[in-house]
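Quick question, first post here. What does this chain look like in 3D?
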Amino acid sequence: MWGRRPGFSTLLRIVLEQQVSLVSARSMFARLKSNVEPFTPEAFIESGEAYLRSLGVTRQKAHYCVQVAHAFTEGHLNGIVRMNDEDAHTTLLSIKGVGVWTANIYLLMALRRPDIWPEGDVALATAVGKLRKIDPRPSFLQLAEIAESWRPYRSVAARMLWQYYLAERK
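> Answer (accepted):
Ran it through. C-alpha cells below.
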C-alpha cells in the first residue's frame, strides 16, 4: 500500500482517491480495470469521458482521468523520476486534475521521495490529533508546522501516521 509503481495506473488511482474513502476509490479503480481494456492511457482517451461516466466516474473525475492519460501519451511526465522534488511537483501540478495532495502522494508513494508531506490529508491530521491529544484535530496549517520537525524524513512520518490511523479504525 505504501509503495506503488510509477506510471499511469498509479497516478490515475491517486486521482480517484481524491476526497473519497479508499474503499470507494478501490471499487471504482477495479470497475475501470475490468471495463477499459487494455488499461492504458491510449484506451482511456479512446474510451472518452462519456464512457467513463457510464461506469460511475463523476463528470469531473472522468475529465481528470482523460487529462492524466493525455499527460502520459504526450510525454509530459518523461524524466520525472530524475527531477528534483520541486520540479517533479510542478510537472505533476501542470496536469488538470492533479492538485497539491495528489502530486505529493505520487511523489511519496510512487517515486518514494523521503521528504514529502501530503498537505491537506485528513487521516494524518486525525492521527496526529489522537497521538498528541489535540481536540479538535490540528488544522492543516498546524499539522504542516508539526511536520517540519520531521524533515528530512516527513514521508516516513506520514507512513507511520497512516498506519496508526488505519490500526485505530479497526
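The mean pLDDT is 96.
Residues 41 and 69 are 4 Å apart (CA to CA).
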